[in-house]
Amino acid sequence: MPLSRGELARLSVTVWWVVAIASVFTLARFSEAFLVLRAQSVGLPLMLVPVVLVIMNVAYALSAYPVGAISDRASRTMILVFGLLMLLVADLVLAFSTGMTAVAVGAVLWGLHMGFTQGLLAALVADTAPVELRGTAFGVFNLITGVALLLASVIAGGLWDIAGPRGTFLAGAAFAVMTLIGLLPIRGRLKRYEPALGDSIGKPCAIFRAHTRILPRPPGAHLGYCWCRRPAEKNGSRRS
To answer: Are 65 and 137 members of one domain?
Structure first.
């Protein structure tokens, strides 16, 4: 079913801003193939090049679950900021690396940034979009970020041919800084969608206690987390 112009118009400014930020962020995180090229450029033998991707994926795998658990209890915006800072540092390390040790450090930081950010922007889309328009919001999000990912690799490839590895990764760092700047205007808006914690682990929050006879607890929801609907959601919609 094609995207409806009427439904697109009902998406809030916050949703569109999150999609815009995700698009710029995607330009900063071009294909991991450039990590392999960077390793080759510092003299790593061809048969050992896949080690770079192994290092990156180990860092990603070890960080993804704990960060996901933390994001259910803490500020997703701050976690995203930490992930962006890791990407920024990774780009700078890879831009100025002269040996395999620096490339390995850059690969670890790249993997950690993926653990901190992969899926987080999609979660912000789910948080900020009205329940009845989440399908439309995800469709727009995936369409625009998919185009941005294609552009990111094209831009990175062109820069690699023109400016070399340093220019490519410095451009990635610049896009990461642009993403961080883009987060500033909507930090206040995103705070209203942050998870609300209970008074302590295992103890229901005040909203849970107030609505426990009105809203049944969803299966799998633990009492330390305020799973209940926030005031802005009671009428099935959110406004920015």
So the answer is: yes
Considering just the CA atoms, what is the radius of gyration of the chain in Å? 20
Q: First and final CA of the chain: distance in angstroms?
A: 27
Count of domains for the chain: 2
Question: At which residue do the structure tokens 């883009």 appear?
Answer: 182
pTM for this structure?
Answer: 0.74
* Same domain as 221, residue 112: no
Q: What is the pLDDT of residues 78-120, one digit of tens each?
A: 899 999 999 999 999 999 998 899 999 999 999 999 999 887 8
Residues 210 and 161 in one domain: no
Show the domain range for 227: 196-240
